[in-house]
Specification:
The protein has one helix spanning 66-73, and strands at 2-3, 6-11, 14-16, 45-46, 55-57, 81-82, 85-86, 94-97, 100-102, 115-120. By secondary structure, it is mainly beta.
């Protein structure tokens, strides 16, 4: 299987770059629990550049998820932080999938061309649908 979901990170209105070589470079590959699904010695969840494209390249057809990708990278997304960025009092951590807000407690199964945004909105705004 080979699909390409997109991931963006917005912290208080500023876009953060998704690093190249997550799941390839040993410094950006922390969790190896999915290695059995990888192809050519790589993680099945990886980035090849900093465009925000996640490559799901697996020797088996199965659902791969946002939280699995974050684990490979060694980052977290929860009510306290968004990929290393602390959520301050009064702020919210948000996940949007194709513009629709999704609960932090629900993992997101990747789909080809799906657009996922991880965000701490600016000025303590609540999570709401984005376009």
């Amino acid at each position: 299987m080979h699909i390409h979901p997109q991931l963006s990170i917005l912290i208080r209105g500023a876009s953060e770059t998704l690093p190249a070589n997550i799941g390839i470079d040993r410094d950006l590959w922390r969790d190896h629990s999915l290695d059995q699904y990888g192809v050519n010695g790589l993680s099945p969840l990886l980035t090849r550049d900093s465009s925000g494209t996640i490559h799901v390249e697996s020797n088996a057809v199965r659902d791969f998820t946002l939280y699995e990708f974050l684990a490979v990278w060694g980052e977290r997304m929860d009510s306290n932080q968004v990929v290393g960025n602390p959520v301050q009092p009064g702020e919210s951590a948000c996940i949007f999938v194709n513009g629709q807000s999704t609960s932090l407690s629900s993992d997101v199964a990747f789909v080809d061309q799906q657009k996922t945004v991880l965000e701490i909105p600016p000025n303590s705004q609540p999570c709401s649908a984005i376009s």
